[in-house]
Amino acid sequence: MVTDQPVPVILLTGYAGAELVRRARAAGVVAYLTSVDRKPLISAIEIALERFGEFRILRREGSDPSEAPVTRQLVEHAKKVLIARLGLSEAEAFRHILERKLDTRRSLRDTARTILGAEGVLARPDFARSLELIFHAVRGDLRPRRRAALSRR
């Protein structure tokens, strides 16, 4: 039976060159193994199913299929930020993004962009100054307190 529905693909190969891996990923392979030991195979299947679930969500998310790769790339970067900042697993990071998407009723793409934007601010060396500017923009009457005033309280 021929179907137009995508399926998760795990590549089993005796060769693991960088070019093969690059081409396999471009073709949609979600995991690859160079041996067929039971434990790595089970792990690869679990990862493939997780990534394929993400792929299906990303595919449903956008009405324009040409936007899916851009959205996927943004989500991948946002996941890396959450993994680094919060110590989450890849699956937990994706669930976190989905939860934020549902909470804010925004698109997956916009949610990922928001996370990346926040990381951009947090990564700046002048973060404290950035917070001061944000507070000032939100409430013009709010001024940062001097350290001496803070220590007396």
Largest sheet: 2 strands, parallel
Query: Gyration radius, to the nearest Å?
Result: 21 Å
State the strand order across the main sheet.
1-2
Looking at how many chains there are and whether they match, the oligomeric state comes to single chain
Q: What is the tally of helical segments?
A: 7
Helix fraction bin: 55-70%
* Overall outline: elongated
How much of the polypeptide forms β-strand, as a percent range?
Answer: 5-15%
Total strand segments: 2
Write up this protein.
- Helix 3 (68-86) packs across helix 5 (108-122).
- With 153 residues, this protein is mainly alpha-helical.
- Strand 1 (9-12), helix 1 and strand 2 form a beta-alpha-beta unit.
- Residues 147-153 have low confidence and may be disordered.
- Helices cover 65% and strands 6% of the residues.
